[in-house]
Description:
Blueprint: E1 7-11, H1 22-30, E2 33-36, E3 53-56, E4 59-60, E5 63-64, H2 68-80, E6 85-89, H3 99-108, E7 113-116, H4 121-128, E8 142-146, H5 160-166, E9 169-173, H6 179-188, E10 196-201, E11 209-214, H7 218-225, E12 231-235, H8 242-245, E13 257-260, H9 267-276, E14 280-283, E15 287-291, H10 296-303, E16 310-313, H11 316-328, E17 340-343, H12 346-352, H13 368-378, E18 385-391, H14 397-404, E19 408-419, H15 424-431, E20 437-440, H16 443-457, E21 466-468, H17 471-480, E22 484-487, H18 493-506
Parallel strand pairs: 1-6, 1-7, 2-3, 2-6, 8-9, 13-14, 13-20, 16-17, 16-18, 18-19, 20-21, 21-22
Antiparallel strand pairs: 4-5, 9-12, 10-11, 10-12, 15-19
Helix pairs in contact: 2-3, 5-6, 10-11, 11-12, 13-14, 16-17
Amino acid sequence: xxxxxxxxxxxxxxxxxxxxxxxxxxxxxxxxxxxxxxxxxxxxxxxxxxxxxxxxxxxxxxxxxxxxxxxxxxxxxxxxxxxxxxxxxxxxxxxxxxxxxxxxxxxxxxxxxxxxxxxxxxxxxxxxxxxxxxxxxxxxxxxxxxxxxxxxxxxxxxxxxxxxxxxxxxxxxxxxxxxxxxxxxxxxxxxxxxxxxxxxxxxxxxxxxxxxxxxxxxxxxxxxxxxxxxxxxxxxxxxxxxxxxxxxxxxxxxxxxxxxxxxxxxxxxxxxxxxxxxxxxxxxxxxxxxxxxxxxxxxxxxxxxxxxxxxxxxxxxxxxxxxxxxxxxxxxxxxxxxxxxxxxxxxxxxxxxxxxxxxxxxxxxxxxxxxxxxxxxxxxxxxxxxxxxxxxxxxxxxxxxxxxxxxxxxxxxxxxxxxxxxxxxxxxxxxxxxxxxxxxxxxxxxxxxxxxxxxxxxxxxxxxxxxxxxxxxxxxxxxxxxxxxxxxxxxxxxxxxxxxxxxxxxxxx
Length: 509
């Protein structure tokens, strides 16, 4: 008889993907099946293995993909098939998440399970709004309440009198649609009409909105602002502290939507930096990397480096492709003993570090022209053999200048740079002029981005504001008709991020 798998009931946190727990990420990395909710950030699915099955069972008002009984049955069936299942639930599984029902169903079916707590939205959203749900001298009581019942029904499951008498901070989940009734019932039960209230929509996310008021004004104000779920309602004196503590909206890129065009495998660092500064980041992987169609040339080149004087790496992808070829040919880093190493920029140098190698040459600017100049100035290249592993679409400037200097350049395709298909939601963002900036980190991202939008939309949107990592990328943008608002002074990812921050402070972003 097949041993059953295990089910992990994992709290995905309040929305911001960085707020999932380390244990939650570990479970996702081991998953064979991920069953996820509407409120679980889709970016978290990237932690799961590429071949893991992903099953959406989200519930929204008026639309349930699966009934709760069917979700319970799905978890049991997949675990009985011997699979490791992650049930990814928004917030915390046991805080208005029906995780208890799923745990009981698993126990009754004899399925082993674990519960991985998550950061619940009522506390996290309040914190990101600058509201401490408990504060010495203000309140020492916190009550979490479901706001999802109909305030107009004859018998309420909520003891409104107890809530009104208890004082402290009240946090209502899923209550935006019932906000007028919630405020009315609290007032009727004895809470003063001038009790401060905050409604926090999309808490912890770059789209976060906060509307403040009192019990007698909040329904009108939230309605006028058009706040929509998911949202939490915070009631109590602690809301007044927001005027002093609010921090989330003060980050330099808050309120800006930035499109990142890097390949998906490379975009995470840049996206994380921008998100930490408050930006809403949309990933538009205009390029993807793939192995070379024929790996033989690079494997042959890496198998015999005895006569190679320089290996020149122009990207982290080239580094990884080279060492994959080196491994495939039965070698390791010792084979590079007689070779000097040159790289285009800091990111490529960093890619060498896990292989125990530091570059011998790093030009002051991360451009092909600067790299060629640095190599030529470093010493006479006449008769020097240079291995140049790179993309099949890399420009000819670097090898041409090295050959003009007398070098014997072996220009080998190490990997392929390919166009990708866009996400329909991203195209809608451009149609609606909802994008403030598009960042370009290479000429290939510029060309493919322009090709994709012209193909899908028929034109380049007038409002596209480009930000470029360096002069070569800027020149390509000019060629394809994309205006560049600013170019990074330091041609690196940190330099590009700094440029966005500077432009935001100057009002040009």
